[in-house]
Write a structure and sequence with these properties.
Elements lengths: L11 H5 L3 H19 L19 H6 L2 H30 L4 H12 L6
Length: 117
């Protein structure tokens, strides 16, 4: 079992011997220590020295680089392929009358499972 407060392991044999209270106190103390560690002094951000740049201005710079264009096209194409493969493939098989089992088998094969389970 895992403590929901600190993520520490709570052993079942400790719970059987009535040590839950001690472990809960230990978890709470750990939580207090972590929150004390995380606390940051209140430092106000300084005002910016210059006006922030417009991120849309970098699109032209991105488009001018052929390798970045190629990488984006490959990633976008792969994303579109897998989305359509896992969403529309089974729908097409079910509406085409092949059956739910064939759609599930297609999904399993596409996910890399050999026996279709």
């Amino acid at each position: 079992m895992i403590c929901v407060i600190c993520g520490g392991r709570v052993r079942p044999e400790d719970a059987q011997h009535g040590r839950k209270g001690a472990q809960l106190i230990e978890c709470l103390l750990h939580l207090v220590r972590v929150t004390q560690y995380i606390q940051i002094e209140e430092v106000l951000p300084r005002p910016a020295r210059q006006r922030p740049t417009n991120p849309l201005a970098y699109i032209e710079r991105f488009v001018k680089q052929p390798r970045l264009r190629l990488a984006w096209i490959i990633a976008f194409g792969r994303s579109c392929f897998w989305s359509s493969f896992f969403v529309y493939g089974p729908l097409l098989m079910i509406t085409g009358g092949v059956g739910k089992e064939a759609g599930v088998s297609r999904e399993a094969i596409g996910a890399g499972e050999e026996d279709g389970r």
